[in-house]
Amino acid sequence: MRQGWRWFGPAAPVTLEEVRQVGATDVVSALHEVPIGAVWSAEAVEARREMIETTAPGRVPLRWSVVESIPIPDAVKRTGGAAKPEIEAWIASLENVGRVGIPIVCYNFMPVVDWCRTELDFVTDTGATAMRFDVDTFAAFDLFILERPGAEADWSAEDRARAKTIFEAMDDQAVSNLVRNIASALPGSTTEPLTIPAFRNKLEQYRAIDSAKLRQHLIEFLAAVTPAAESVGVKLTLHPDDPPRPLFGLPRVASTAEDYAALFEAVPSPANGMCYCTGSLGARADNDLPAIARRFASRIHFAHLRNTRREADPRTFHESAHLDGDTDMVAVLKELAAEDKRRSAGETIVFRSDHGHRMLDDLSKTVTPGYPAIGRMRGLAELRGILHALGHPPETVRAA
């Protein structure tokens, strides 16, 4: 297994030199500056690869091994194979990525909103801060800020009462912060930032799309792009929904083992793979994380390893320390290590310590929400230690 690190580009607070210092060998990145739907040019991809992989003498080399993500335009999610120009542009980006030797592309298929949190700096019992999804605060947004038509039907009377209490206690700044967190796109998001009116309009465009229709659109997309991935030696990895359940009345189709099974049956190519995210899948109590890893082992090419802890209302969760949440990370790594041992060197699983607590010096610094250096370094060290204890230490790279 290879140790990855998500890097948001040259303007990111964490530098490539710091990535080396934490022990990562593989960079997970994207051309975040390119608008959604535009083609990633071969020149731009190559320039970013050179930036990541050009190494000063005496330094450990890094490798850009995962693209996360090439955003899928909204038109593809709404219309599937009918969005031919958008799919062709996506294929062109994929081919340019593959031709420079980047072997893995991660993507997601969440409509309108990408990963969703209500708080970015929830104070944990250690004093470190974490991201949190609070279902009552989310309901307050849905019912009283977004004022989504039909939202009342999705919430119980008790839910609505708690949400109203929360909303009435909010001042203008609290409302603005919540709108930013939910509607304005979190780091790495592959959906467009939205104003509240634009949010309502976008939801209206999905009114006739249920889970069966959205899944069919994803299958049509995969049927179109998988041959191109095969031709350039790229493995596609679908990231789970986050949280793994419907939001705003929208369907979600990558939340459970059965969701993935349906996609692998429909498009059986080995290039059609999975981004195994323990944080996203683990937010559902009915997802058995080790069993999912075992069932889809051969499809896992990229792993996000993080942990969450469900609260008194299990719909609410916060990002826990990597070894201190609801997911048994040792059991998960046993499954991943067993699969990795079966593979050739060129097919090893890339993993990264996803998210992380904001702690120590990072509490007084500007950080990318969800991606502070020290919390992720702690997580990576813990995961690395487990792999050593399992007798399958991650690959190491030395300076030339």
Automatic annotation (TrEMBL):
EC number: 4.2.1.8
Upper classification of the organism: Bacteria, Pseudomonadati, Pseudomonadota, Alphaproteobacteria, Hyphomicrobiales
Top-rank taxon, per record: Bacteria
Protein name, UniProt field: Mannonate dehydratase
UniProt keywords, alphabetically: Lyase
